[in-house]
Amino acid sequence: MKKIKLIKNKNYSICSCGLSKAIPFCDNEHRKHNKKYATNYKSVKIIPAENVLIEVNSSTWKNKI
């Protein structure tokens, strides 16, 4: 589990595939993987309405955090 601070009205992309080198944030590594293996990984988009601290986790991240 990773705690991250999000800033009001800023766009965030959270990794859902576990391939990112910037976990918990998406760095678009899924695009190459999707093309090579015909998968459909996408990031989770978040635009908070206020400054907030959230906890995020994904079973695909393995032990990257």
Describe the structure in brief.
This protein has 65 residues and is α+β, with helices and mostly antiparallel strands.
Order of helices and strands: EEHEE
Compute the CA-based radius of gyration.
12 Å
Please give the count of helices.
1
Kindly report the spatial arrangement of strands forming the biggest sheet: 1-4
Oligomeric state of the chains present here: single chain
Count of strand segments: 4
Average pLDDT over all residues: 93
Beta-strand fraction estimate: 15-25%
Helix fraction by DSSP (H/I, runs of at least 4): 10-25%
What composes the largest sheet?
Answer: 2 strands, antiparallel
Uncertain stretches of 5 or more adjacent residues: none
Shape: globular
N-C termini distance: 7 Å
User: Which secondary-structure class do the elements indicate?
Assistant: alpha+beta
Helix/strand layout:
Blueprint: E1 2-6, E2 12-14, H1 29-37, E3 44-46, E4 52-56
Antiparallel strand pairs: 1-4, 2-3
Describe this structure in words.
14% of the residues are buried. The chain is α+β, with helices and mostly antiparallel strands and 65 residues long. The chain has a two-stranded antiparallel ribbon. Strands 2-3 form a two-stranded antiparallel sheet. The chain contains 1 helix and 4 strands. It is globular and about 40 Å long.
Give a quick set of tags describing it.
65 residues; alpha+beta; two-stranded antiparallel sheet; 1 helix
